[in-house]
Design goal:
This protein is mostly loops. The protein has a domain at 37-93 and 101-111. It is 14% helix and 9% strand. It is built from 2 helices and 2 strands. A two-stranded antiparallel sheet has the order 1-2. It starts with 36 loop residues before the first strand and ends in a 7-residue tail after the last strand. The relative contact order is 0.21.
Length: 118
């Protein structure tokens, strides 16, 4: 179901009901592990999370580390399409509507590529 690099590989599936049916065919939400910030990045117009992953981690597929470190200001559901600009927001602020929410100048925390002894 997932590629070998997927961060959802260890995610638990939903438990079947007593009749054997599944309440949902997908998987449960993944646990967000630690993403200790070590740098700050000021977001510029047109920057994307995959490009920042490539820049800071030499691996565009690690963009989710930036998302994990900024869970209070970034929401994956707001990243509408691949290539769209991230739409940062602060906790408690309403989500921006189309055409609102200029991202320029938003400070993102950049974590290590991985936690632990590496």
């Amino acid at each position: 179901m997932f590629t070998r690099r997927s961060r959802y590989l260890a995610t638990r599936r939903f438990e079947p009901a007593p009749d054997g049916s599944l309440p949902f065919a997908g998987v449960r939400a993944r646990d967000i592990g630690p993403a200790t910030p070590v740098l700050e990045h000021v977001l510029q117009p047109g920057e994307r999370l995959d490009a920042l992953g490539g820049h800071y981690f030499n691996d565009a597929w690690r963009w989710h580390r930036i998302l994990d470190a900024n869970a209070d200001v970034l929401c994956a559901a707001e990243l509408e399409i691949i290539g769209a600009r991230p739409l940062p927001r602060r906790s408690g602020d309403p989500a921006p509507t189309a055409g609102e929410g200029e991202a320029e100048g938003q400070v993102l925390l950049i974590p290590r590529a991985s936690e632990g002894g590496g």
